[in-house]
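Why show two proteins at once? Because comparison is the fastest way to build intuition. When a single record is shown, students tend to memorize it. When two are placed side by side, the eye starts asking what differs. So, the first record is below.
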Amino acid sequence: MLEGLLIGLSTTLSFKNLAMVVGGCLIGTFIGMVPGLGPMSIIAIMIPIAVTIGDPSAALILLAGVYYGAIFGGSTSSILINAPGVASTVATSFDGYPLTRQGKAGKALTIAAISSFSGGTIGAILLLAFAPALATVALLFHSSEYFALMVVGLSAIAAFAGTGQVFKALLMTFLGLAMGTVGEGVLFNMPRFTAGILDLQGGFGFITLALAMFALPEAIYLILDPNRSRQADGSSNSEVKELRITKSEARAIAPVIGRQSIQGFLIGVLPGAGATIASFLGYAVERNLAGKEEQEKFGKGSIKGLSAPETANNAACTGSFVPLLTLGIPGSGTTAILLGALIALNVSPGPRLMVDNPQIFWAVIMSMYLGNLVLLILNLPLIPYIAKVLAVPRNFLIPFILFFTLMGTYIGQNNATELLILVGFGVAATIFRFADYPMAPLLIGFILGPLLENNFSRAMQLYDGAGFIWERPMTLALLVLAALLVLLPSYRSRRAQIRARGVADAD
């Protein structure tokens, strides 16, 4: 390992590769801020450029920098205008945007930057130390375990349900699961629930749905409520007053960063899981671990609710390189494109990569350390200037939000039908928000639904029925965990009610 570190360090510290780290981070950060583009689009565009570089190490360092730079920068639009830049920053908007509305945009961006840096750096350390061993563990996960993992993800909806909203959260989850069935199914290559519309054969686009659930309703709210851009005391929330976090806030988010760096990294290691699922699960876990008073703050501007998904998605981004580099298996859609780039560069990822091309393997890992440091240095000084977007008058801010929402939707799918879907879902989401229905469970159901169906279908075929549930101990353990995640909040709530009645009777 020491020899590998030295090889990676000498390769990464060359002028050419350092320029690739900085360039990739810059491109990724600014692309991540634009809703709809995301790392997949820009990496696909940049593959021809990477191939012309010639040096596989430099090319992969550039593309990797774009990847985690986009994840790092995607939180900006989520926090400032409630329009997620990439899918993995949807959960960031749950508490990031409320902090902005409270006049704490600078503090929110600082917390996001520190959490992203910490998650990515700790993930890089874990990648360095445990990549070969974790690759072996990842191979133990079959379709049945992935099905159970998706059930664990769905069981976390209780974390997104406020007081008295459990039924509403369940209803929105089932709606999301139903929307995930639109398009071609896994068992039969036939379109379902498309109403004969060819553009729906591939299903609804996630970016379209995310922008319809969050960004478009926000623009409508700004139109309907002239005071929405101001705080309760009448002062404008566009003034960036706070950038530094206090010692008490640092102590509050430190354990969150520690837990979610490890959890996010482990989820990223699993092929097919990815940063989006890691961010949602990270948010859910931290809300369940919080005390009752702290739980009430989630969704209203909790710094823990902001730190958790930002840490988890960056750690998962790093973790997704484990199956790519050690097994040649893409851990997400973006790493699938990176796999194609490696093949185009005549590099074969897999168990032999560390032996045959150690300079590539170790250079990518070392570049992640430097890349996260570069991202922190680039982003922290820019926070006051980035947050100035809130100083834009509302007459310009509303068209600004609508422009990026429409552009992000069209670029994401390159399909005009998506614009009609965006408007339809946006109006529906606004009505749901007026009725106080949570939007997050719908997105969770939509994301996990197809993965749940695909893996359940494969497991049923492999084991000729539902016997895989008790035949595979890991599957059963994950399903038991899902049941506990559903029952534990109800049990805690019931105990609190009994205790409250006991205190009232004593008085």
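Second record. Ask yourself what differs from the first in the token line.
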Amino acid sequence: MKTHLYIIIATTAAMAASCGHGRHEQAESLPEIEVAEPIVDSVTIHSSYPGHLMANREVDLVARVDGYLVGKEYSSGQFVKEGTVLFRIEDKNYRDAVVQAEAALSQAEANLAYSTKRYEALKEALKGDAVSEMEVAQAKSTVAENRAAVETAKAELQTARTQLSYCTVRAPFDGHVGDNVISVGSYVAGAGAPVKLSRIYEDADMIAVFSVDDSNTMGQLTENIKTNGVNYKAIPVSFSDRPVHEYTADLTYLAPQVNTTTGTVEIHAVIANPYNELRSGMYVSVDLPVAADPHAILVRDASIGTDQLGKYIYLVNDSDRVVYTPVSLGDQVRDSLRIVTKGVSPDDRYVTKALLKVRDGMPVHPVLAK
């Protein structure tokens, strides 16, 4: 009996040792997969809205007098300073009109001076009964008429000088000037109605113009502005024609009325343009901050896969097995993280990379990422 007992005990011990060694070899044979735990943090939620750019000011340069266009004093697209001469229109007739108006004013002033002296002399003569009261009254009336004539002559001279000034078209502010619409040598008839010559753009700052049509978003935006809970001084923007530099916008205008045709509210945001890369008419996408989530779940953006069903992530359960998990996503934040709105909880572990090496239900040896 003892001999048989010893054999049974030895056999059992050998089998136990063999099973333990097998489990150890099995654990060592499992692929080592890097996993991470979601980050829970406060983030700002954005909504993207399409829009377009316009210069801070855009003004047509026009001819306001009749005459031949005799000069273009700039290169198309050139940056000019305020007051720079841009166009010249033939001004001989207008210079002659100024000379005539100056002469008319001089004559009116001379008439006023003479009539004033005569009136003063008649008043003295009246004291000695050398003249009648009627003559004095007539002299006084003549002074009033001549004084009015002087004022009329001054106004006509001012008008003539203004017309002459219109023959020189200057930049109303610093900016870039577009190409000329009318060729030099052409006749422009701007006296009846202004004739466009070109357009100038004050584009040191650009305005992103877009509209919001979601009443809930609009209400949240208004509340955010009142409470200052969200930063609207550095709104992310992107462009279809991607420029070299990155830009942000500063929200400056919220229309007080709803467009009855579209049901939207127009919003403006200023974008500084120090490199002169941005142009009026460019399409822009504005990532408008609309809310703040104090407990957002964040995962690495690189850990998210895409298939015909949509977005997914691989979780690793308590049994160290991979679980294919569809997810709903929000904004990308901090360059490399993505908000997960559905599918992941704060206590989960997810595969961070090498998504092609794992599959649903696969046993793995998870290693926590540093």
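One difference worth noting in the second protein: Residues 213 and 261 are 12 Å apart (CA to CA).
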